[in-house]
Amino acid sequence: xxxxxxxxxxxxxxxxxxxxxxxxxxxxxxxxxxxxxxxxxxxxxxxxxxxxxxxxxxxxxxxxxxxxxxxxxxxxxxxxxxxxxxxxxxxxxxxxxxxxxxxxxxxxxxxxxxxxxxxxxxxxxxxxxxxxxxxxxxxxxxxxxxxxxxxxxxxxxxxx
Length: 160
Prior knowledge:
Layout: H1 8-12, H2 17-20, E1 34-37, E2 50-53, H3 65-72, H4 78-142, H5 144-149
Antiparallel strand pairs: 1-2
């Protein structure tokens, strides 16, 4: 009975190598990527190419939250996506309609209150002005002290 022992390479490979790599070390983002670029003044087929270590994707902007969420939509079934879309659009539509309704309602209330209460305010102001004029007239006719103390008891009230 022969038992085959695995090679040294198979024994050392535990499948845990991926744990040592950084989350950002994707094949596109590895900083140690080496690119062959020709030096200035040489042709691309020159025998002595210049090796430069460049990050090819540094000039690209990172994904936004919206782009990431849009990419995650593929993992959900169509009924969940359509339900979410329906709820979102109906909620947005409801908020817009409530805003428009509140604007219209505030306009009606404000304009109605101006139309209904303006005459009352004008009449109250007119009555106060008349009282003030009567008081001033009484002060001129009877003197300054009589307007402060009120009508004298022995005098009859003035006709209107």
